[in-house]
Amino acid sequence: MKNFLLAVLLVSTSTVFAQVSTEPTIVEPTASLGSVMKAMSSALRKIAAQVSDANQNAASEQLALDFVKNVEASKAFTPKTIRDLPADQQDAKKQEYIKMLDDTAQLGKDLASAFHNNDNKLATDILAKLSTSKKEGHAEFK
Ligand code: HEM
Asked: Domain of 41?
């Protein structure tokens, strides 16, 4: 009986240890797609406020490059609208998502060069195109 109790104790203790050691490591995500998108939005809002002010072109160029980095970062996420699709449709939709973000990143790069070349008229046109990209991206994936 004593041995039996000891055995029970050992098994239950090792089970406790086993549970502890197999506890999944919870990795806090550094960002969510929503927070990356908010950063994109904030950069574009600052740019829009100073798009005609040529004195701010160096700062606007930097903001456009920050925007591009965040657009690129968005590609690592899979929006819920895609995750909710049947498994056999997800890959194609993710490719479509990445393509829209690649096009958006290209516009961001064009925006940075427009500021670099002090072409504020072109920068204004590109901002309007980015507004359309946002609408299209959200209509499809948000
Ligand atoms: C062009 C500039 C864009 C801006 C400024 C922008 C901005 C935003 C903002 C402010 C949100 C809400 C974030 C929140 O409150 O949590 C959002 C969400 C979202 N956007 Fe964009 N967006 C842009 C383009 C795009 C594109 C091109 C796509 C897709 C190809 C896209 C896909 C999404 C998705 C899926 C969400 C929902 C994220 C979530 O909460 O899971 N966005 N975006």
From this structure: 31-141
